[in-house]
Structure formats: structure tokens, C-alpha cells
């Protein structure tokens, strides 16, 4: 029987081990690899990487199964032995805690581990070392408004004031005199963690916001409301009737184009 792979942490990353670790068995023949954490990574990136990896190391009969909105299983067989790769998408913090508790072999984080998390995981080694942290993607947040909204750009400071509830009317941002309707993805999630750490800092998020199960749903809500704004991922589909805002952080406002994100000229990049 293969043993559990210890000491793995991911920050927008995934380790592809040379041999297959397995932690649990559904019965006497099915091994299981548990990958828990960020829904940003777990929705599409990690399942695609896992399937490619499984094919590369000789697995066949590979197929996905949506067990729940928060979990995807990828089933495969090699040499007659079945395997389940369990991808649990309950957020970066939950995945990291599962890694510490021994309930996951790999943790997906859409951010770097926080100081308190690193302290709690002292027994796992140096989680920032290249042997334990494997970056696989650059991501960021996009701010979406209705195409009828006259506002074209925001500063990070203005976004902080909006999410914190200190600005509740579009007139305070150069728009028309109307209340701001804020839409966000579910919490906990890597997107919400990133918003708190990179935008809010020590400022509490007290603005009233409608929470959606997915960032795509948050973006679609903006298409139907000229006074709405949503904070989504830069890879989120931008629906018809909406557009993204240029964001500034002490300099020129930059749109979240692929080039600007990959070069990290866009301020809201992780």
C-alpha cells in the first residue's frame, strides 16, 4: 500500500508527485488521494491537471464525478487497481487546516499561508520552500459593473471604502446619485480571503453585500442592475451587459487584461 505524502502546501499551486500517495481506502482495493482547499483552483485548474497527470503515469478509465457543489471525484484505474482523487473545494483556509490535521495530502491555496497558519503547521516543515510550495498560476480580482454605469476606474483605496461600507452611493465614486449594490462570491473562499488581505487590510467589511455560490453568478447579477458591482476572478466570464473597471494603486489605472495580469502591472494580482 502506498503511504500518505506528507508536508505539502500550495499557493495557487499543485505538486505532482512521482509516485502516487494514498491515504484512505473505500474498500480493500480503492486508494484515495485527497486534495482540499481553494475553490478557485479546485473548480477547473486542478481537475484538469490531475487528469493529465493520471494519464501521464499510466491510468485509464479516467472520469470526473460531481459528488456535491464543493467536491469533485476523479476516478481512474491502473493495473486493475482503482483510484479516487478527491478534490474538495471548501476554501483555502479549510484546505490548509485539513493538511495540518492529516485529512488531506495536498492543500490548494489561492494565496500564501498566513503567519498564524504557518505557525500552526510548524510540524510540516518550511511551507515556503520550493520543495513544499509549488506555484501553478497567477490570478487576481476583477471589478465588474453594468455597462450603463459611467464609472470607468477605481483606486484600491476607493474599493476599500466601498467594500467597507464607507462609500455607499455611486456619487461618491464619480457616478450617478444611486445606492451601490455589492455582489460577492461565497465565504469562505480564496477570493474573499484575497479581498480581505489585499484590499481591506485591518478595515472591516461592513457593506451589505449579496453573496453568490459562484463568482459567475455574481457577475451575471450585475448585468441586470445598473447600480450593481461585483468582485470576481480575472478569469471569470464577463457577461454581456457588463464591463470591468480599470484599477489604480498609486499610479495609472490598469484594466485586468491577460497581459496586465501576467506582467503583474494590474494591482489586484495574487
What would your notes on this structure say?
By secondary structure, this protein is α/β, with parallel strands linked by helices. 24% of the residues lie in helices and 25% in strands. It is built from eight helices and 13 strands. It has helices spanning 39-42, 45-56, 92-101, 115-120, 156-164, 190-200, 215-223, 258-262, and strands at residues 24-25, 31-37, 60-68, 71-78, 81-88, 106-108, 141-146, 153-155, 181-185, 209-212, 228-233, 242-244, 246-248. The strands form three sheets. Strands 1, 2, 3, 4, 5 and 6 form a six-stranded mixed beta sheet that branches. Strands 10-9-11-7-12 form a five-stranded mixed beta sheet. Strands 8-13 form a two-stranded parallel ribbon. Strand 4 and strand 5 form a beta hairpin. The longest helix is centred in the N-terminal third of the chain and has 12 residues, at 45-56. The radius of gyration is 20 Å and the shape is elongated. The chain starts with 23 loop residues before the first strand and ends in an 8-residue tail after the last helix. 38% of the residues are buried. Mean pLDDT is 84; it is low at 1-22.
Amino acid at each position: 500500500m502506498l503511504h500518505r505524502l506528507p508536508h505539502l502546501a500550495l499557493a495557487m499551486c499543485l505538486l505532482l508527485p512521482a509516485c502516487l500517495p494514498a491515504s484512505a481506502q473505500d474498500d480493500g482495493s480503492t486508494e484515495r488521494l485527497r486534495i482540499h482547499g481553494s475553490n478557485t483552483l479546485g473548480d477547473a485548474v486542478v481537475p484538469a491537471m490531475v487528469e493529465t497527470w493520471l494519464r501521464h503515469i499510466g491510468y485509464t478509465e479516467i472520469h470526473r464525478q460531481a459528488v456535491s457543489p464543493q467536491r469533485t471525484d476523479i476516478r481512474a484505474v491502473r493495473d486493475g487497481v482503482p483510484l479516487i482523487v478527491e478534490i474538495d473545494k471548501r476554501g483555502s483556509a479549510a484546505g490548509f487546516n485539513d493538511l495540518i490535521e492529516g485529512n488531506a495530502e495536498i492543500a490548494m491555496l489561492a494565496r500564501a499561508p498566513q503567519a498564524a497558519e504557518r505557525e500552526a503547521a510548524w510540524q510540516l516543515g518550511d511551507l515556503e520552500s520550493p520543495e513544499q510550495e509549488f506555484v501553478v498560476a497567477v490570478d487576481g480580482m476583477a471589478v465588474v459593473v453594468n455597462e450603463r454605469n459611467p464609472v470607468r476606474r477605481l483606486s484600491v483605496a476607493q474599493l476599500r471604502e466601498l467594500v467597507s461600507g464607507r462609500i455607499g452611493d455611486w456619487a461618491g465614486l464619480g457616478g450617478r446619485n444611486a445606492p451601490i449594490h455589492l455582489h460577492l462570491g461565497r465565504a469562505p473562499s480564496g477570493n474573499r480571503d484575497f479581498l480581505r488581505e489585499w484590499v481591506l487590510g485591518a478595515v472591516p467589511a461592513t457593506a451589505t453585500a449579496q453573496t453568490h455560490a459562484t463568482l459567475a453568478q455574481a457577475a451575471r447579477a450585475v448585468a441586470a442592475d445598473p447600480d450593481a458591482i461585483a468582485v470576481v476572478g480575472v478569469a471569470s466570464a464577463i457577461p454581456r451587459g457588463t464591463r470591468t473597471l480599470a484599477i489604480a494603486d498609486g499610479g495609472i489605472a490598469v484594466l485586468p487584461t491577460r497581459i496586465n495580469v501576467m506582467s503583474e502591472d494590474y494591482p489586484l494580482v495574487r
